[in-house]
Design brief:
Elements: H1 8-12, E1 19-20, E2 25-28, E3 31-32, E4 38-39, E5 48-51, H2 54-74, H3 96-111, H4 119-131, H5 136-143, H6 148-154, H7 159-177
Antiparallel strand pairs: 1-2, 2-5, 3-4
Amino acid sequence: ALTAGLRRGELFALRWRDLDLDNETMRIAGTLLADGTIAAPKTAKSRRGIALTPIAIEAIKRRRIIQMEDQLLAGERWSNEENLVFTNLRGKAINPSNFSSRNFRELLEKSGIRRIRFHDLRHSTASLLLSLNVHPKIVQELLGHSQISITLDTYSHVLPSLQEEALGKLGRLLETVS
């Protein structure tokens, strides 16, 4: 979620066929609803391809091993009809709301990270990218926002420091010219 700015439902709707580890990409093709069904994205921009970071690729490979172990332990009780990447111990879809209220809080505590909402991972991705001077259009595409204004309005708190940095660069450039 943090490495790609995914929404919770997008993460839990990932199917193994959505991942191309050879080309280091994934495809966001839906969102997992509370009832376990996968809904099509609301907008065309939400359906998107995303490059995978090396840390994400390693995590996905580890997830595959864990899922195969879970499948062996579950035996006949295993049921992963959608071929989801993230499942419970019996191959069923993970309820996104339950994950946030139970598992995610436990993960944060074990990691020594203060309590945040799962969606804050998405905000962190965007804020970090913008602070690294990644063009807002790229951040918009990564997050699947339908309009650049959504990205700019939501993450405008990051922009003042970027503005100061940009004006500093402009000032240095103009000093060399004069």
